[in-house]
Structures are given as structure tokens and as C-alpha cells.
Amino acid sequence: MNNLLSYFDKLKTITGDSVYLNILIKTVLALACAFIIWLILKRILHSVGKKVEKYEFVKANTQIFGIIRKALFFALVLVTGTYLIRLLKVQLFEKVFYALLIILIAAPVTDFLIVALKYLENKLAERTETKIDDIIIDLLNKFAGVIVYSIAIILALDVLGVNVMPFVAGAGVAGIAIGFAAKDTLSNLIAGILLIIDRPFEIGDRIEVWSAPAGSASWGDVVDIGLQTTKIKTTDNIVIIIPNNEIMKRDIVNYTIITSKIRVRVNIGVAYDANINKAKEIIIGVADSAEWIAKDPPPKVVVRNFGESSVDLQLRVWINDARERMNTISYITDKVKTEFDNEGIEIPYPKRDITITQKI
Questions:
Q1: Angle, helix 132-159 to helix 94-123, in steps of 10 degrees
Q2: Separation between Cα atoms, residue 254 and residue 146, nearest integer Å
Q3: Are residues 228 and 291 located together in one domain of the fold?
């Protein structure tokens, strides 16, 4: 810088007291120096990029040097522009220049923020079991540009001397109005975030579906958890899309949240005059014949109740896969009916004796 000033002094002695000519020369020299510095910086960046391109981070984020190049360019513009404004004494444009530069700088800042979020996603989110960080990073990726440019515009207006408080207040009122207009959407959005944080179920879990069409399967597997809705594919291969705020209002029955092993209960009635012990042996034998029914703990039959026309038994078995629940009930019911018929054990049904009296 001292060398440049000495050159300017020499030129001043040559050109005399011509103020405009001195300003013109200094302007040209400032622009020329800025251009030369920019060429040198580009050359340095290119050389550094060649040396570090072998690193995994650089390979995964090839745009990082483009972001650095933009940042250096705007920094050089800031220095050169500030010098020229003060040289030309055009303070009228100084605030406009700074405001415009703030908005332009928002571009590399946004790009850098997206790269940083991508790095966090690869290094942090994918290594954790929880999906909270996934959803937060996804939201930040979507709204990073909006956030950065909003802050840049507010700062630019502040530099221009514009009072931004009325705009902030107006935005708050508009936000409230939009919130009332889109309360269902916002309710689903908040419920979706709470679902991801609380994790009452995850993708792949089997849960009860209370809104299934009449006559169709009432449970299914979670295939997608979105910010607005959750998609559940029932065992009839029907995908039911449920708003998240509806899910948060209900009791959630999850069969696989801890383990896929569950206990299944099958109610079976026998006649009062039947041999209860024989009936229990038959039921246990049927349960043992199913490969998917766990042997430990073993199947168990209990007497639950004395009904109007039957002794109500209940088979309790553990299965290793909750998705076999309906198959288990169907298999046990079918086989027990066949074995009871072979052994002469009656499965009763309600009977009524009707006596007709006739008056003569």
C-alpha cells in the first residue's frame, strides 16, 4: 500500500494540481490493482484445489471452492468499492453500495450453509438411530435460503436507514393471519414433528388402523412418516394416508415397537359335558404343530368363563413375528375344529327351548 501511495505522489508531481486527473489515475490504478489481485487469488485457489482434491470432503463437496471464490470476490469488491467511494467523495451511494453488497453476499453464505448441513447429515444424522436430526436438517436445507436472504434484506434496509420495525410487525400480523387460515396444515406439521420426536412408531412398524374401510384389514405397516401425513399399508395392500394431527388424537397400538414377538389369544368354547382336560390337550397339540408359534414360553390354555351354553377356554401362545397374528388365529381355529370333530368334542352354540301351549 505504501508503494502505491508513493506512485500516486510521483504521478501527482507529473500531472501537477489537476484534481480530476489525479482522481482518474487513482481510480484506474485501484481497478487495475483489484483486477491483478483477483487473478492472483484465482490462481492460488486453483493451485490449492488441485492439491486437496484427493480429500474425501473436497470430493463430496466440489462446490466449496466456488463458494470461497465468491466470498473472496465480494470481499475484494467491498475493499475496492469503499476506497473508490471515499476517493470520489460520493457518500450518497455508499449506503446503497453496502446494502447491495449485503444482499449479494447472501448467495455464498446460503451455499456454504447448505454444504455444512450436507456434511452434518452425512457425518451425524446417518449415524444416529433417531430421526430428529434428519428432519431438522431437512427443514434447514429447505428454508436456508429464505432465512439467509430475509436476514440480508433486513440488514440492507437497516444500512439504508429504513426503520424495519413496521415491516417486522407487519410480518408478525401476516404470520398470525396465515396461521389462522392454515391452522390445519400447521397442526399437521407440528404433529408430524412431534411424531418424529416422540417416535410412537417408525417406518416398518405394524400398527392398528382405526380408519380402515369397513370390511378390510384393520392393521398395517408404516411406510412413510411425513410432516403432514403418515402412510400405512394394510395387509390388504391398501395405503391409508392419515393426517398427523388425527394420529396424535388417538391411542396408537404398535405391535413391533419393542420386539416383533407378541402373544396371541384365541377364544374357544366347549360344551359343559365335554372333557375339559382332553380339550386342552387337543388345543395344545394344535398349537405345537405350528412352526412359527414359539415353544418358549410354551402354549397355555386357561378357563376364562362359564358362558350361557359353553365353557369358554382361551389359548395363549407367543409368536415370533407379529405379522403372523391373523394367520395364527385362523390356523388354530381351523385345526381345533377338525380335531374336536374327530374326538367328538362339541363346540356349542346358543340354544333355546320353546314350549308352545295351546288353550282349548
A1: 170
A2: 38
A3: no
- The answer on 171 and 40 residing in a single domain is yes
Q: How far is CA 251 from CA 187, 200, 201, 291, 323, in A?
A: 18, 10, 12, 32, 20
- The range of the structural domain enclosing residue 243 comes to 201-248
Instruction: Determine the pLDDT at residue 18.
Output: 60
Please tell me whether residues 236 and 267 are part of one structural domain. Answer: no
**The pLDDT value given to residue 131:** 56
What long-range pairs does 154-161 form, CB within 8 A, spacing at least 24? 155/102, 156/98, 156/99, 156/100, 156/102, 156/103, 157/99, 159/95, 159/98, 159/99, 159/102, 160/95, 160/96, 160/99, 161/95
Could you tell me if 274 and 244 lie in one domain? no
Model confidence at 5: pLDDT above 60: no
User: What burial letters (b/e) apply to 245-258, b meaning 16+ CB within 10 Å?
Assistant: bebbeeeeeebbee
